[in-house]
Amino acid sequence: MTGFILLAIVAFSLIAFYVGRSSGRRFVAAHGPEVHSRPVYHGAYVAIWVGMPAFVLVLLWLLLQGTVLDRLILATLPEALTAGASAAEQALLLSEIRNVAAGRIFGTPSPEVIVAGETLLRWEGIARWAMLVVAVALMILLLLGVRSRLSPRFRARQGFERTMSGLMIFSSVVAIFTTLGIIASLVFEAVQFFKLVPPHEFFFGLNWEPQIAIRADQVAGAGAFGAVPVFTGTLLIATIAMLVATPIGLFSAIYLVEYADRRVRAVVKPIMEILAGVPTVVYGFFAVLTVAPAVREAGSVIGITVSPNSALAAGGVMGIMIIPFISSLSDDALKAVPRAMRDGSLAMGATKGETITKVLLPAALPGIVGGILLALSRAIGETMIVVMAAGLMATLTANPLDGVTTVTVQIVTMLIGDTAFDNPKTLAAFALGLVLFLVTLCLNVVALRIVQRYREKYE
Amino acid sequence: MTDATETSSFEWSSPQAHARRRRRYAADRRLKLYGIAAIAVAIGLLGILIVSLVAKGYLAFVETVVTIDVTVPAGAADPADPAKANYRAIVADSFGALFPEVTDRRALRDLNGILSRGASLKVRDMVAADPGLIGKTFAVSVPVSDPFDQLSKGVIDRTLPENRRRVSDREIAWFEQLEAQGRVEKVFNSGLFLDADSRFPELAGLAGAVVGSFYALLVCFLISFPLGIAAAVYLEEFAPKNRITDLIEVNINNLAAVPSIVFGLLGLALFIQTFGLPRSAPLVGGMVLSLMTLPTIIIVTRAALKSVPPSIRQAALGVGASKHEVILHHVLPLAVPGILTGTIIGLAQALGETAPLLLIGMNAFLTSPPGGIMDPATALPTQIYIWADSPERGFVALTSAGILVLLGFLIVMNGIAIFLRQRFERTW
Questions:
Q1: Segment A268-318, tens digit of pLDDT
Q2: Residues of B whose CB is below 8 A from A353
Q3: Among residues B349, B361, B368, which one has the least CA distance to residue B406?
Q4: Where are the transmembrane segments (chain A) (predicted)?
Q5: How far apart are CA B396 and CA B402, in angstroms?
Q6: B171-182: per-residue pLDDT in tens?
């Protein structure tokens, strides 16, 4: 149905375009050079003002239909079912009704639910047809209205271009909407979480056991939300990743910029960039399948017990993933150092190595640091490698051979499966997400600033 | 002045100077060596990654099948409704007929364990398609179950002591009997591409995930391509230099660096929780991915627009085109190769993205491909994640094979992007 309506909108827009253009042609035939805009602009103006409002209407309708119908259905239910029901119970009831409506009946639903399911089904049918009728009616009205505005002196081109500009401005503001959406959804759910768990417990507590009791009278599993072990685990893994990636990335950048000849560079650089293009789930599988057993084996050879989900394996593989970021950003930074500084140093009799360590690296340092910060932000936010290779237990340790857990692992494990938005376990994921977002945001802003400011200095 | 005389009297050929020079050159060579070592390590790691995937994954591209003669007794199936019959028993009887010496119930059950669970379904589908087969005996090639697949591929070591492998000596003997009869073959595993997921590794395929990924990428493209180009055109060509456009720019750069899982949280809270869109649907996945791809497309499109020389704009403006006409008729067409290249690279990134799809539930276990963008679906990377988590041995090979398929798609997409760039790149 939705596809049909979208097709109808496209078809109507095309019709509108031809209607507008033929009016424009008539104006040209009748009035000649007095006509302000070319016929095609009349067509485009009518088309955009017929299609766009209808499209927006359909989008809004689709977004809101579900929620509105849910409200209406809840209102039709007898008082006994809805009175005093919490949001979760209402959601449960609604999903039961929806299941009945879709024909998936489990057990024996109460007669009210069956009636409600039938009502919902009927209303959904009505809503679908109503959407089509309203959209088509709107388009016909708009077509008539807009067409009556056309005249030889009508500034169709300006009108069309203004609308286009408006659409373009809207598109560029989408980025801001996205950021606002992220902040709003994270903050909203995190606030719910902090109502249940006090912030000081979350930020300073040393015990992370998010298993929530299923029944109220259950003894074990009250759930503890002290996030410090999760934060330290994240830092430990990110540190290991940086220890692997920074020297390899930096040295390979130095070699590629200063020593390698053009042919070597042309071959090696794309190969290194493949490392950045490999999906992270692949790295995760690689860590589990190859690296973690290898690390354990190596540990047992020298007589150390290594946990199967060691931070070393996860961090090491994450380091491999980050190598190309560090190397290409250091590459840029080294290349941005002006030729004259290099030549000056070489002219004084310094070797290439001395030029690099004493002149180029200090000059490129801000850019390199910026790159390292960006890579660190990536390591902190990286998900799949750690979800697959790091542990689930939050242990407060600095030993890279132990299993630790990270913020992203906890978010994924807490949100996989059925999600109810009223228990602290789910909401805790959003609190962790908020922390993750803010930390990476700060790192990114600082890093981008450094990189940009540094670049401007030499240009 | 004393310094100058001292410098001029420096003994360049003294042993100390030689030693110093050697040290300095050695330091230089060391630095170069570190560079080479670093590159060797990085490329070596990439090599290990690929070799380990191929070594594990190539096995999943072939499957072991056994050819058996199935007899459907005339009374066992109703010709009017041939799909309804106990095909499991029919197949078990036909298979048992090959081993007349096996009569014990336990042994018979173990014997039937050689065949995959899909065997009876395959026979059912054949009979349903052609009810004339009822009452006849016909040859069918059916997949063997995972342990025997592994055995025939040599993953299970026959020389291990019996209690340390998953197939018993007796089962191996049966299997070798089948091999001796020439009934066992290795064929190309077309099910890997044609079937959807399954609990049984020998039956599981990628079709559902490929279709799901396709729908999600389609949604992602339909949203991010127009929005991205419009935003880039505005920012590059129209936007005044002020606070608001600065804010937008900073925002776009930041969004490009926001962890992907945060986008998953956004999708979960906003699209699923607030707007009530269906969980696991490619629509939601595509919307989330499009928000992630948008910054990439905007940044690349701006670069492409920037590379169109100002003389073109000035010439068009000079003959009286409006600013919109300049861009629509002259600048954008010239920038199209660059824009397409960037879009393909952005979509390739989106194709490999896993974490946000996990959060919106595109890791459901589904045995049929989705029929549209609102149906529950999986995607390639999430399918890989599901398989990587499965305990059966066969899924290791399957995961690697899935990864090879995903990497194949990525290589093709990047290849197209490189081709576009080289074919249409223009230097002004």
A1: 988 888 888 899 999 999 999 889 999 999 988 988 888 888 899 999 999
A2: 24, 27-32
A3: B349
A4: 40-64, 126-146, 167-188, 235-259, 271-292, 312-334, 355-376, 427-451
A5: 10
A6: 888 888 888 887
* C-alpha to C-alpha distance for B283 and B222, rounded to whole angstroms: 11
Instruction: Name the residue among A18, A13, A19 with its Cα closest to residue A51.
Output: A13
Range in A290-299, B4-13, B233-242 with the lowest mean pLDDT: B4-13
CA atoms of B190 and B205, how far apart (whole Å): 9
CA distance B269 to chain A (A): 6
- Is B211 within 8 Å of B370 (Cβ atoms)? yes
- B396, amino acid identity: V
For the record, the structure tokens of A288 come out as 């589990």
Q: Which of A164, A172, A377 to mutate to test the interface with B (most CBs of B within 10 A)?
A: A172
Q: Residues A19, A139: contact at Cβ < 8 Å?
A: no
Judge whether A377 is closer than 8 Å to chain B, CB to CB.
Answer: yes
Please report the residues numbered 383 through 412 in chain A whose beta carbons come closer than 8 angstroms to any beta carbon of chain B.
383-384, 387-388, 408, 411-412
| Greatest C-alpha distance within chain A | 96
Percent of chain A exceeding pLDDT 70 equals 92
Comparing CA positions, the residue from A186, A245, A264, A206 lying closest to residue A385 is A245
Confirm or reject contact between A430 and chain B (CB < 8 A).
yes
Q: Taking a C-beta distance cutoff of 8 angstroms, is the pair A440, A418 a contact? A: no
Query: A457: buried, middle or exposed (CB in 10 Å: 19+, 13-18, 0-12)?
Result: exposed
Query: Could you tell me if residue A224 is left (phi over 0), alpha (psi between -120 and 50 degrees) or otherwise beta?
Result: beta
Name the pTM for this structure. 0.88
Residue A167 burial (CB < 10 Å; 0-12/13-18/19+)?
Answer: middle
Express each pLDDT in A397-417 by its tens digit: 888 888 889 999 999 988 876
